[in-house]
Amino acid sequence: MKSPVYFAGLRAHSDQESTTVKLQQLFDRAGFSDAVALNDRTALKLHFGERGNDGFISPVYVRQVVDKVKACGALPFLTDTNTLYTGSRSNAVDHITTAILHGFDYAVTGAPVIIADGLSGRNVRKVRIDKKHFRTVTIAGDIALADSMIVLTHFKGHIVSGFGGAIKNLAMGCAPPSGKCAQHNARPSPVAENCIGCGRCIKVCPKSAISIRKKHIMIDHDLCIGCFACLHACTSHAIDIDWETEIPDFMERMVEYAFGAVKTKRGKVGYMNFLVRITPDCDCFPFSDAPIVPDIGILASQDPVAIDSASYDLVNQQQGFTDSLLAAHHQKGGDKFRGVHPQTDGQRQLEYAEEIGLGTRNYTLNTL
């Protein structure tokens, strides 16, 4: 069986073809009104963007989905979870403040912001899944308690998972810090010959697991939580991961968490992927790099695997930008995400998600 995925391009010739109108049409065509019932407490799962980042989904777009959820007679709220690393979203106070600074306030979106795992990430629920890596997963309490959910995802690249789509938004995004830590099984290791002793990694480590001895870094794996903040911060390539053995496991753990996030919501979840400003890295960075391909459009589906598969294919059908982080596969049909992060094959996300029954990679693309 193929899962339907609905697509709206960004071309417009009248007010009836605006992006805001298309978002409302996608909501209807994808059958989201069947997933959202009267008086449902409906979570709109977002990424509000790290402070300094501007690649996140526009609050104006989010408002269209809020209004459609309200028209179903439900009670929408915007939500995300606290981060594992330090930054502007590591606790609910800073997180809500950042969301408002980025335009996600009630006056714009028409819905309140609720950080689903509470003030410091301790509002959680256990969900039993009985999979390869986890028997139970830890999901943010207010996402677990929500009656229905619309997952709104900025589709982009990611240094560890290859790409960040609906699956990753469910997995990392619906987990509290303890759940994120459980997924991050990989641990970085120093590459001594590349270290210049700058100390950038020490500043970003949330657990003080890094020290400098004789002008080279040392990483205490007993303290390390695998958040990869040091990997992102290092400019001299002095920190690395065992990509061949640890990263496929990481992706499988991530997919199992995605499964747990929606296990109790069968038929009650809708997904929208925004293929706009497709950056090489995630919105957790306090900056946004230039996009790697042109803007494409917006997709909607009730199958997270199908919508991510369609998004992946649409990105790869584009001609890549040469003046971006994209170093290879610029041609149409080339794997753009391997062109940015050659050590990571994001297809493993999709393969394993299909294996465990989260959805199917087979889809039909229906254009509005």
Task: Tell me what the structure shows.
It is a single chain. The chain has 368 residues and is α/β, with parallel strands linked by helices. The chain is 32% helix and 20% strand. It contains 14 helices and 16 strands. The strands form five sheets. An eight-stranded mixed sheet has the order 4-3-2-7-14-15-1-16, with helices on both faces. A two-stranded antiparallel sheet has the order 5-6. Helix 1 (19-29) crosses helix 3 (59-71). It starts with a strand and ends with a strand. The mean pLDDT is 95.
Q: Any descriptors?
A:
368 residues; single chain; alpha/beta
Detail the poorly predicted runs: none
Residue share in helix = 25-40%
- The number of helical segments is 14
Q: What is the quaternary state of this protein?
A: single chain
Shape: globular
Widest sheet, order of strands: 4-3-2-7-14-15-1-16
Provide the succession of SSEs: EHHEHEHHEEEHEEEHHEHEEHEHEEHHHE
User: How far do the termini sit from each other?
Assistant: 22 Å
The share of residues in extended strands comes to 15-25%
Radius of gyration: 20 Å
Profile the largest sheet: 8 strands, mixed
Number of strands: 16
The averaged pLDDT comes out at 95
Instruction: Give the class from helix and strand content and strand pairing.
Output: alpha/beta
Please render the helix and strand layout as text.
Layout (H helix, E strand, L loop, with lengths): L2 E7 L9 H11 L2 H4 L5 E5 L13 H13 L3 E6 L11 H10 L4 H4 L3 E3 L8 E5 L7 E5 H5 L2 E7 L1 E3 L3 E3 L1 H6 L5 H7 L5 E2 L9 H5 L5 E4 L2 E4 L9 H5 L5 E2 L2 H20 L6 E7 L21 E5 L2 H13 L19 H5 L6 H9 L7 E5 L1
Parallel strand pairs: 1-16, 2-3, 2-7, 3-4, 7-14
Antiparallel strand pairs: 1-15, 5-6, 8-9, 10-13, 11-12, 14-15
Helix pairs in contact: 1-3, 11-14
